[in-house]
Amino acid sequence: MFTRLLCLVITSSLPFIFTLTGDFVFDDSEAIVKNKDVVSDSWLNPFGNDFWGTNIKSNLSHKSYRPLTIISFRLNYFLNGTLSPFYFKVTNLVCHIICCILVWITYDCIWKRMKMKNNILNVPFLAAIMFSVHPIHVEAVSGAVGRADILAAITFLLSFLLYDKAFNIKSMTNIYLLLSIIIAGVSMLFKENGITVLGFCCIYDLVTHTRVKTMGKLKTKDILRNFSNRKIGIKCVYRIACTMFSAMLLLYARWSVMGGTRPEFNATDNPTAFSDNIFTKLATYNYIYFLNILLLTWPQWLCYDWSMGCIPLLKNFTDHRVFLVLLLYTYAILYIASIVRVKSTNSIMRIKLLAISLLIIPFLPAANIVYPVGFVIAERILYIPSIGYCFLISIGLYKISKLNYKYYKVLSVLYVCSICFFALRSWQRSYDWQNEYQLFTNALSICPLNAKVHYNVAKVADAKDNIDWALQEYEEAIRLYPEYIQAMNNLANLLKNQKKYSDAEYHLRNALHHKQDFPAAWMNLGIILAHTGRYIESKYAYKTALRYRKHYPDCYYNLGNLYLQLNKTETALENWFHAINLNPKHVSAWTNLLAYLDNTGQIEKALQIIPKALEELPDIPVINFAIANIYGKIDKYDEAEEYFLKAIKLFKNRVQAIHYANLGVLYHRWKKYDSAIQMYKMALKIDSKFSSALKNLRNLKRIKNKE
Known about the structure:
two-stranded antiparallel ribbon; 2 strands; 1% strand
């Protein structure tokens, strides 16, 4: 027992070790890094907001209500005092290990309840090993936001195990049933699909306690007659009735929390849902089901995002993919037929039904049946359904071992090879999830038709200063999706930085043509117009941006820059102050404000706001450098030296000649000539033609010679 437990812990941790050294990636940024609920002083805020920190009843909310997951993030932050991806990912891995142990216990519980006996195989353990290494889990374990799926799975399994315990209680007052329903509600607060455990529990109860009077091999004409012969105990009916009633109450409560409104998604999130053609909808949805099964069976093609054009729609019967859909359903019908033709008292039939239910029922919320979801395929959604899949595969191996020992030996080798392949694939995929560069670029080969993949690759290319590649990827994203306004906006910014103002303006106006109320495009258009001397148009663009987004600190900052160009200095200051009020950590607004007060000799006013600037941005090098210059001008040498040295330390490899030169000037005026000479030489080492350092160094040498 201990050896098997140790083996399971090792297999559930080793393939995902790469993830621990990774960064926050993809959705982690919005759900954790930028989510105010994670760092809020209040532990109750998550109960009023969605997973991304937006008010759950707002029209802008995605309606993903997972407050307990956010609280787990909040607990990580509270215990470690920082948003370190390492601690978040360690927590995810520990949760995955716990889940794998619970999966083993669950398999064993079902196996024994069905009165199954292990022959030369320990089916529950083998199935748990396969689950522990399955590559479909890498997204849930490696992406911090995947914790929602892992915690929902843990509570899903706990709820089921408590429901199984309820079978042993004879009285109507069943504490285990009550606890099972409560834990199911908790699971739903980790992630929405956790509620499906109640559906599985009802199936489990029916399959376990339904009895048939007369059986034999079922023929089609006998199926209805045999259903009428089924007997279900009163306690089974009572448990199922309580469970279904509780499920409806929980779903109603969930609907009420959402404000009685459904989430609204874009056509780019789930293109199939926006198709007007019934055939296209049904065929594409069913093809997506096939792809989900394929990812569970052969997880070679894994991608962080399957939206936009990643899976082209099936528009007619001539599409060869229709054959794959027909193949899926043909297999499903034959498989079900093979089950119902077996005696209903046969335990293997019952356990196969449970494994299929455990595969299908948790997937139903993502199947676009009740209402469209905001994704095409999401690998982490398969975390719970894969429990049923791994069980089903192991049951198949068990059946073959009983039928033919020769085939069993061959298939056992294949089974072990599959587990090894899954482990290696998980190891490899964990490496992809270490950072966004690897994750996004890897997706290019899997989903080359997905405009969002090209958009994200462009962003990481820009971050690595590979501007040509970034431009190419933004252009490809727009080619694949001509209404991709975010790509147009970002492409315009890159072109603006290259001073290709006319091209940048073209893309911004194109974005505004598709979406008139696009504040970022209006603001960036204002910047372009200001650069090209069209100040009146620039002002109009800024004002329009603020009309669509009232609280827009970046726009107020840029509007302040425009007023400075127009020599309306008081209005410029007002706008910079407004930007700071909206975002106290707006580095550029603080920098411009301090620099302006310094350059215009308004030292007293500068001294008044320095404490606030340091409170908000104590470790920003440009802020410390600006403050050092101000203190230097009023001969506060000690304070100026402190902030100059701190700024240079914070700049690290981005130190420029002016930083050493200004510190040299401070030492020069302070009559610390040796230190001044050293700083001037440091400045000239960076830029040998830096004129002020050359001039000051010559003057200082003359002074030294006279001494």
